[in-house]
Amino acid sequence: MSRQTASKYLSKLVEDGLLEKKQVANSHFFINTKLWDLIQNAFIAK
């Protein structure tokens, strides 16, 4: 899969509200915030 194709699919997931896009310097990170919250809460509950 090309970088352009991956970027297109990831941007669509951001539009649909499934991912959140964060930029750090020249890099873009795509985060599944619902999954991240679930993981954090699992560790906090221990």
Description:
By secondary structure, the chain is of the alpha+beta class. It has one domain. It is built from 2 helices and 2 strands; from the N terminus they run αββα. It has a two-stranded antiparallel ribbon with strand order 1-2. The longest helix has 13 residues, at 3-15. The protein is elongated and about 40 Å long. The model has no long low-confidence stretch (mean pLDDT 92).
Element layout with pairings:
Elements: H1 3-15, E1 20-24, E2 27-31, H2 33-45
Antiparallel strand pairs: 1-2
Helix-strand makeup class: alpha+beta
**Percent strand:** 15-25%
Relative helix content: 55-70%
How far is it from the N-terminal to the C-terminal residue, by CA? Answer: 39 Å
- Side by side, the strands of the main sheet go 1-2
Count of alpha and pi helical runs: 2
